[in-house]
# Entry
Amino acid sequence: MQTQQEITRLQTTIHELLLEAKNQGASAADAGLSIDNGLSVNVRLGDVETIEHHCSQGLGITVYFGQKKGSANSTDLSEKSIKETVTAACSIARYASDDPYAGLPDPDRLASEFKDLELYHPWDLSPNDAINLALSCEDTARQYHPDISNSEGASVDTYQGIRVFGNSLGFLHGYASTRHSISCSVLGERDGNMERDYWYSVARNHKNLESPELVGKKAAERTVLRLGARSLTTRKAPVLYSAEVASGLISSFLGAISGGSLYRKSSFLLDSLGTKVFPDFINIYEQPHLLGALGSACYDAEGVTTKANKIVTDGILDSYLLSSYSARKLDMQSTGHAGGVHNLCISAGEQDFQQLLKQMDTGLLVTELMGQGVNPVTGDYSRGASGFWVEQGEIQYPVQEITIAGNLKDMFQHILAVGNDIDYRGNIRTGSILIEEMAIAGE
Amino acid sequence: MDNSAFQLAKQAILVPSDLQESDIHRVMDQLLNGSVDNGDIYFQSSHYESWVLEDGIIKEGSHNIEQGAGVRALSGEKTGFAYSDKIDLPVLLSAVKNVQAIARQGQTAKTSLPGRTPYPALYAPINPLSSLSDQEKVDFLRKIDAETRKLDPRIEQVIISLVGVQDHILIANQGSSLVGDVRPLVRMNVSVIVEEKGQREQGSMGGGARSDYHYFLEQDRALGFAREAVRQALVNLEAIPAPAGSMPIVLGSGWPGILLHEAIGHGLEGDFNRKGTSAFSGRVGERVASSLCTVVDDGTLQDRRGSLSIDDEGTPTQCTTLIENGILKGYMQDKLNARLMGVQPTGNGRRESYAHTPMPRMTNTYMLPGESDPEEILQSVKNGLYAKNFGGGQVDITSGKFVFSASEAYLIENGKITHPVKGATLIGNGPDVLTRVSMVGNDLALDSGVGTCGKEGQSVPVGVGQPTLKIDALTVGGTNV
# Structure
């Protein structure tokens, strides 16, 4: 199998990198290599707009001279470049300070079992096939409603890549993965005002993608629903985050319990381990070994084995997210989170989206957020929003040019429900989230 | 033409790849042979380093080397694009084959080679990475750390980063000789966390330029960033909840010019306007701002972060008037969109790297000064908000809605600045926000050289600026309803 040969070849290169580091005096090192190939096609108004062929590679090395650390990266995998890249990393390490917490992971934490997580499903797709899929996606969107007036186009993307990682403790592993997507963005116009929205589908196996027609239809439906949007007067009201924006709330939570924010004391959830961060009914856990899922991995960015973790049980914080470095800084153990989480799930309630609207009764449904507006140190939160005003559980009209504000600590405590309408398109899997009350600013 | 930059770029890119200029002409002939309208090849070799000081120690550093070539073929509105991390003849010829699939039938274009058009160099073709020795870099960071910690006993954490980039580029275009540029860029940042009575706040300040590391040693700049970061963090310790609702806003000078970038700038990029997807589409000649407002995009400012001697398609940059006395004058263009709209390129064709396609992007976008004294602007507001500094922003160019987040803001009560308020988000509508500008200060300032703009997944360095401004009504997204 060609992919296996390629992995083997890259593993040999990792050996060479680690050996070169040793020869240049490093006491420890880790190295990673990646190769990515892809095709990306965009059509607009019924015609091809771009065809892009992607082909990129990279190597990265981190060396330790005792407790001093240096890194270097290059896009050139040639023998000459390997030497130069290692030299660059070593030269930086010589000027870095002794850091008692620096170093490779504890050997017994490194992954030693490598289950096939079924991440590699190449899609034999010619540029012409891709164009036809994109055309059919955009065409469905444009035919959907007479108010659809223009298009930013539809895209079909397919990527396959190989990652290989090793360190001087003897860890060495490589795997191949794929990622395919279809997306569409169209404009609508009513009374001289334009709105735009989009939809996309993404999967490791193209057979799990939504059909191009469905992606086009959802994009157009979302655009048309936004037409005629108005602002709201300033008020306090319940807010329902639709599933696709609710993941942003959860990622602010993950940022606040990650080792880097904690040891820098730049988190609004300092010293919160074992305390109640969410209401009783919230459970948050991680499933890193789901077959074929977008966030699956056997090990984290430094080779530490990933495990099915419980992060929050009955609202109580069970675990921080730690790399080896942040764990040592906090006098704890790595949790396998160098580089982030892997398929993080929020336990879903019984209610579907419609039932959540009913439970909210009167309030704001948010479907898009704009701007940064989150202070990670204090949890103060204020972001631009658009969505729909809801009364008696029914959508009344689209709204925009408003902001929603609160403090994340309070907002987490006042989650009333999590829906079962889970969005599986990312690394964070959550349904819609209903929050008791937030400040809404408008006209 | 800045010949030294061109020669240096050739040296950095062609020599290691063992390519001659004649090889590139051969590839261009192949690319333009037959049926594409236009095409280009973008070669890049880039060195980037970063140093981070945290907890009082030099915690990490990294050195990145990026090089490759991107080949583009244009036919009507269609673009074929391929890139490779390898720069050699077989790879280039194979990329040419890939991108030609985009071509339509029956068109021909030929390369011709006129001389190079002269343009001024806006920065020296230097290597910032070697402007200080590694020992000097780490000594400098340690010194700034020690001096920052002396500024206030409430400082808990200091993080200082130093970044340098040297970018060599060569562009082969239809109808012109090879052109090249050497682009230095340095950036420094100081962020602090302060703590008082269990309450913590952050502050951050930085700057940069198309220069070398000596830039930070001059005029006490580095410690200036530290003082400003500490000042902002301490102000925020005192901040009360921000008000919510529509009110008069006074925007400070300098970095708050991000308002222009988000609310106006993106909507005036040529691609959106050609496609008719911007809230500003088809509005050239119309009033989009009060008559006090003149806004330009100027890529020609000496040594500025957003400046370029030539853009990434080889077009010399210029100062483009976007809005003059309130009237929309024109858009920012790359070659593709200029050709399709029947106008001239404005030197705004930019790309993140050889692995990305160019599109119309801003350079340094700012509003020209007016006549009001900033003090008089504040005094004219009975109850409102003074937004002195900002984090990032975002815009939906189709609906025109934009947001940006204040990192330092104060209540204005009876013409006087009173309490600092917690970071509030401001939200408005691009096409009408500038029509509500009722006073423009005489204190134009450009930002300190920190801006990075993202569009369709591509990041490029930019600059912004403005004088103090008064906007009669804008929505403030606080919690105090």
